[in-house]
Amino acid sequence: MKPTNPNPASVLNNFAESLSQRELSILMDISTHIATTLDYREVLQIISDGISELLKTDTATIYSLQEDQSIYLEVATPTMSTDFQETFRYAKVPEHPHIQQALKTRSPIIIEDTSNEPLSPQEKKVLELSDVKSLLFLPLVLENELFGILIMGAQTEIRKFTPHEIRVGEMVANHLSGAIQKTILHQNLKTYKDTLEDQVKKRTQELEKANMKLVNKNQLAAMQRDELEVALEQLKVAQTRMVQTEKMVSLGTLTAGVAHEIKNPLNFIHGSYLGLMRFFKEANIEDKDAWKMLDSIKLGIERSTAIVSVLNDFSRNQKAPFKNCNIHQIIDNCLLMLNRQFDRKGITLEKIYSPQSMETLANANKLHQLFINILLNACQSIPKEGIVKIETQTEKDWLKINISDTGVGIKKENLQQIIEPFFTTKDPGQGTGLGLSISYSIIEDHKGEMEFDSEENKGTTVRIKLPVTKKNQLL
Ligand SMILES: Nc1ncnc2c1ncn2[C@@H]1O[C@H](COP(=O)(O)OP(=O)(O)O)[C@@H](O)[C@H]1O
Ligand SMILES: [Mg+2]
Questions:
Q1: pLDDT at 443 over 60
Q2: Where does the Histidine kinase domain start and stop, copy by copy (predicted)?
Q3: Which residue ranges form the domains of the chain, and what is each CATH number?
């Protein structure tokens, strides 16, 4: 029987009125029980157990309808053992005509006496196993959709299902479909949520992996970049050194050659000059102009000899042994030589000498040359009036000499080049551009250091460091 009244609430009310106290209390139990769970199987089990108690049957089973014309045993009363094999849970609908009939008509089907009913071979097989005498098939409909079938069985005796019982079973089955649906919905949601969670987890893992790879790659790239930068810097330094050394070597060879070539003619000239002098004296020549000419020849020879000696210094032909040198004394000698140039420009000299003695083993000639170059540059950098300050200090095994001026300073772009041979910003005839490159090689010979601090229009400080060398260190 199917409810004909379209209003479910009133149907339920009429139906409730027809129920006995026992039936009502069992139904209440089922409802309360169902409310405690959202698990699909559990809800089906509660319905199966409840309806079997309600209709006083020995067995109850709930099958769900599958897509391929088969049904699947979801739960049973009495409860199935958990190791009930999956394959036995399936049954093909066409092989069970009574089930097929119930599903097709969506109405209850009753077999009152199984021994008196024509049965299909499959139906017989099932009955042999369960030994059921009477059967009630109740199709389960969820929202107008066939969901499955509820099968009640009486084992001990032939059992007549009264129309009331059938109605109760039908009503309960259909009414409880809401609960089943809720669990299905929940189940779907849960699956959906689990799938989502799985996907999120998977994506997160993938992202983490990708991120890790990226971080590793970044770190590697940063490391490689740092290494490359260091290598590049080293390469630049090495290259500059090489170019510098190359230049110095070729320049040295050149100047040594020139010095040697000039020295010979200079000797002839000197010899001839001495001869001329003797001749003039013996001949008692008093011509003033002639003597003046002789004097200028002498001056020329002296200057040329001095230049040859500087060239020799530069080409390092002159390998003078290191002797004890007093730096203060050497600087003072240089200042003496430059005295006139300083005065002419109105330069004030400030000397802040360290009270400690500043002595080291060195090539005195070369140190003179070094300080002359630096002091001369300082002097030349001051257009008119200014200060040249010389400060000395000892620090552990180092002698520190700072020479600063209030001159025009060095342009930033020139700072790298000033020690290059022939680099000069001075007018032709004013500078050769060799002073600092010679000074630099002198510093190198003495294992010292030289640095320049300069600001345009403010001045320049040259910081020189020379190691304190003692006799036993030279070997
Ligand atoms: N104290 C200084 N103040 C300003 N510029 C300087 C100073 N010392 C060196 N320089 C710059 O360095 C260049 C090279 O110096 P140097 O090698 O002594 O050659 P030169 O003095 O013959 O030019 C100079 O032309 C000048 O531009
Ligand atoms: Mg110079």
A1: yes
A2: 257-470
A3: 8-175 (3.30.450.40), 188-304 (no CATH), 320-473 (3.30.565.10)
